[in-house]
Amino acid sequence: MNEQLYTFLLLAATGAVLAFVFDCYRVTRNTLKLRRFATALGDLFYWLLATVVVFLALLKGNWGEIRFFVFLALFSGAGLYFRFLSVYATLILGKTARTIGKILRLVGVVISYLLIRPILLPTRWVYRRAISGGTRLFRWATVPKDGKPPEV
């Protein structure tokens, strides 16, 4: 009986953890506004991950035996998580995602001003001088000595 209780609690915790991972995926999907193909890939990845996690939990808990109480434990753990913790977790995860997005945008602006612009400004200056010099050279090479443009 003690081993069955351990397995039940382990699988209930596994169900709750998988529900939390699903909330993380859901917040990420909504934050990044993923399209159909990326959502399908994300769903596939989630279910592959869930399968591996449940398989490992089953191996640890009861040597991989699948019985009715396994499904009962997984669904009860996920159900309790969704009933009592999911709302708070999604709020915290959403705020965290927005904060990380703001920090990444700030880092992008800093990198742009400190690294990219100092390289691009001299490069643009040299490029513009080379183009204008090339245009003058082209005009000098194509205009005849008498100053009249060639007839076509």
Automatic annotation (TrEMBL):
InterPro entries: YabQ (IPR019074). Keywords: Membrane, Transmembrane, Transmembrane helix. It comes from the Bacteria. The chain crosses the membrane at residues 6-25, 37-60, 66-91, 103-120. This is Spore cortex biosynthesis protein YabQ. It comes from Anaerosporomusa subterranea.
